[in-house]
Amino acid sequence: MSKKRIAIMGSTGSIGTQALEVIQTYPEQFEVSVLTANNNADLLIQQALQFKPNVVVIANEELYDKVEEVLWKEDIKTYTGTTALEEVVQMDEIDLVLAGIVGFAGLRSTIKAIESGKNIALANKETLVVAGEIITKLALEKGVNIYPVDSEHSAIFQCLVGEFHNPIEKIILTASGGPFNGMKAEDLKNVTKEMALHHPKWVMGEKITIDSASMMNKGLEVIEAKWLFGVKPEQIEVVIHPESIVHSLVQFKDGAVKAQLGLPDMKLPIQYAFTYPNRLETKLERLNLAELGQLTFQAPDFELFKNLRLAYKAIEKGGNLPCALNAINEVTVAAFLNGSIGFLDIAELNERAMDLVQWNSNPSLNDLITTDGEARVIANNLINC
Ligand code: NDP
Known about the structure:
11 strands; alpha/beta; Rossmann fold; four-stranded mixed sheet; Rna Polymerase Sigma Factor, Chain: A; globular
């Protein structure tokens, strides 16, 4: 059997490094054809020396010489710049593209990969938030499969195996609630970046960790679920489940509910996206329900975590609004991380900025790129005034 050749977009990130751990565990199954990074040139070089891809891309042009100086001796082609990301995903020597770049920056390379008929293991949820309709239509047209990597969406996907002909009545997305679950608005006023970055269950990149603390992550996941599974927003329910054992559930029209459970570890959903419909044996820690004793569930607090409400509003209205919300949130999260705004300001500003965006009911990809730029300006203006 030939090895599956995988392009790891965002190889230096949390998803990218865990994907490489999976690949390292099964050298007879997978090989790396492409590695890409933005700023972490040292780790990219180290990964390239270990995994010997055909090509690497360092998106930050200032770091090109540093990477190229080492890798040309190994016969590994090195490219730089954002257009290189879009070009390398089209190479013949790729069977599957792992979309592991964070944020809007991951959109264009994912689109190019789909256009050139590559199957996608999708971690970059922002891609579907921004352009869900365009992406899902394009994937259908090109016969491309999109395998979810997000643990919740992977769980739903796993529940649907053998059920694809059965309509979904409801999707129940579980949320850990992040580090601030159960707190009051008063307690959240002065939370620091360090507190927000301390997720109780998952170790992830900074942006998604802040999104988890503010519940925007779950909001983005609601939008992602709508596009991945073809359901309406009102068919998606969010439930807080602090133990992060039940990764999500699907309810069918006869009332039956299926769930996928496991200890929190992203390597499992990454691996499943690489191997679907097969499963490979792992040494991952096994679930012991008796030891856990109990699993708890609560309704989310939509007033305190208003980002979740904003995400529902964006997807219900549709058009360019989810794209705008995503852009605004990228700006406010960056502002929180650099200390310009407080934690509660993230959702406050997201709401105010979203109200200022000019709505377009049926945007093209170019319209969405324009919306992304305009929404960032609106958000920055609000932060600076
Ligand atoms: P990280 O911040 O850890 O990694 C992001 C990766 O993208 C890095 O390789 C980074 O390069 C690269 N990157 C960032 N900006 C750019 C850019 N402008 N151009 C090119 N490359 C860029 O993020 P995560 O791995 O946590 O998340 C990646 C995606 O997966 C996100 O969309 C997230 O929502 C999703 N996801 C993540 C989960 C997790 O457990 N981490 C779980 C579920 C979904 P460099 O480091 O070199 O600068």
